[in-house]
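Hello again,

I reread your note about wanting to compare the complex against the isolated chains. To keep things tidy I'm splitting this into two emails, and this first one only covers the full assembly. Below are the input lines as submitted, including protein chains and any nucleic acid or small-molecule components. They are followed by the predicted structure of everything together. The single-chain runs will come separately.
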Amino acid sequence: MKKSPKGYVAIVLHAHLPYVKHPDTDGFLEGNWLNEAITETYIPLLDVFNGLVEDGVEFRITVSLSPPLMEMLTDPLLQQRYVDYVNRLIDLCEKEVKRTVLNPELHSLALMYRERAYHVREVFENKYNRNLLSGFKRLHDVGAVELITSAATHGFLPLMDEVAQSVEAQISVGVSHFRRHFGFSPFGFWLPECGFYPGVDSALARHGIRYTFADTHGVLFASPRPKYGVYAPIYCQSGVAVFGRDPESSKQVWSADEGYPGDFDYRDFYRDIGFDLDYDYICPYLRNGIRGHTGIKYHRITGKTDEKAIYNRQAALNKAALHAGNFMFNRERQLEFLASLLDRQPIVVAPYDAELFGHWWFEGPEWLDFLIRKSAYEQDIYRLVTPSDYLTSYSHNQVSTPTMSSWGFKGYCEVWLNETNDWIYRHLHRASRQMVELANRYPKAEGILRRALNQAARELLLAQSSDWAFIMKTGTMVDYAIRRTKNHVGRFAELFDQITQDRIDPDYLSHLEWKDNIFPEIDYSIYASHMVS
Amino acid sequence: MQDSAGNAGRARHNHIGAGIGADDDPSSTRVGDSQSSMYLHKSPELDRQSPSSPTPAEFRGRTEITSPIPEDPPEYRIPQRYNETILTLMVRDPYWIYAYWSVSEQDKQRVCRDYGRDAWSKSIKLLRVYDVTDGVLGDIRSRMDIGIGDEATSWYINVPAANRTYCADIAIITPTGRELVLARSGLVSTPRDRISDVTDEEWMVLSGFDKLYWMSAGFGPSSPEFQQRFVSRLARRRLLMGSEALVRGFSPSGPWGALSSLEGKSTHVHGVKWTMERGRCDEEIT
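Full-complex prediction:
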């Protein structure tokens, strides 16, 4: 029997994309988010986890899937559009294989991309029957992955607290849709952007959630002072356990200056043939004919230079293995040290955006693969666990209340509340209050009234997606984020008027149900005041 | 373009005491790329682009189409503000609170009716912020007035201390010197910005987690009723304790390992004997 480890490491991957589905337009620019993430992140991660399971490697990892992502991954139209996307990609890969035939370096990379493209199409169509959630579910069932959920539309909850029912609805829908997709209730909940505030735990507890996460300072500044810092969970008064993010392991992966993904041997993200090649050649593979990423990138980061060298796959994989070893070594030393200080086995919690792996950091999935294998076979200082595993062993924890915090820049709410996006909250709060009013006023609606109330709830939820405020702040695709916010707020306002003036237009309603069809079986009554005790 | 409701008067920050600077740190913003893919690295600290990577602009700006977004205006126009009297505070960080407000036309007319035809336009408009941490409202020492002029509909308030509770009023002082409160916000609390001074330890045991976990993995009864019953039993069994002891030495190594190592074992938690059996977890008071 293996000896007891000094401590534990919990890797948490949070997968999320905003709900983008425009049934009335094809070739919509934003639609590529999902396609790229499936190709570069979700399928490669599933491949890694499946490979580990097949090889009998003992590991545990936590994966949070946001409800908008779950809804998109199971949407037949978006699944078809993904197949179309991959077919175009395969077509481009075939052309690239021919084009590069006289250049051995490029040619081997073109072959690699072609192989990957055929592979993702094969597993998407035949292994998962177009539904990637089935892949995640299987990994949960075999005990490798613990799946958890997040807020309905990834609303940033600290700025939603003005109307308590809004927070309640975001959590309730997040939990119920997880259950709908996976058939069991999640224990864990990823707070969007790690946005915690005192009181959100009570809402989580009401929906059966047992644990969540907060950023380092959220837990460190908790009161009473947490005896173990972020190296053991704390219980809120509601009984929900909060795990704090470990700053060290975060930095090694996240940091632009010191993090692994910036290594010169890794593939360069920006240098894409979508920008580099002759326009007439590449145009058919660009969305709306606009220069953009195709996913085929032949260069490595190289250094602080514009003269990028050709990517060397083997060197990059060697580096990923080296970095995995470095990460493992650091966790070993860290846990040895922590174990000498704590009178229990410490836990190091390392959460990351899933899309970092593969999409931005091309070698990320392989790094994770190396890390998990090395952790299983090359050391016995720590073991990979999920928060549930830890709570199973340590059900006895300090009671303390974390502070309001997030993992955004500066650690609080500024990313989602600043001069670029603060104007949205007036509208979001008002719509939230009106939604509560509707739920209270029409408690047991039937027929078209019920449909209209449910659609109003969908529009409100879609407007509340934290992604829009984030995009406004970052300055990328700002017009799109503004348009989405205004359209969902506007549709909500129109529905509110139609409902309260008893003049629901069935055509208008049907149109919205078709256009914004997230959460088909939502129940608007979650907004009623009595739902929040 | 964007309807920045309340643009006027918003840019100024009312500096009271030292606080976190409100200016945007350029390092916090991602390089202005117009590519759809960029959104995908929405990671908190990766906001800063890898220093070794070229800016995407180097690869754009050619003669082909460069407009990133089809110019598709929103279907809806939404008002800059609504005809309602309301004041809302939102905490941005330990030292900054955002306030937005509006005053209805009816309320403005009421002011004019009661205090003179141009009473509204000639009134001094104030955002009055109270520190109500100690539960006292109206104490002049914990109050600050911000002149907000006629056009502003929002403000970033720099507050002097973290971990405090605030509320605010929209007030006016009429030409005759009458103070009127038009709207009052709810209470908001700023977060602590340092380690807590409170070192009293309180501990809680939420036992039976393994039981729930077990059930969710397909062992034992999985009917919602059963789970509901079990959850409420757990709620009743919440124990508050003064010191740490117990349940040690069981190492989770995946659900099966963890659970099989517990099988058949019993442990005492404050007078309650817990025995683990496959699919069952019996408690008995001893």
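For quick reference: Residues 203-285 of chain B form one domain.

B.
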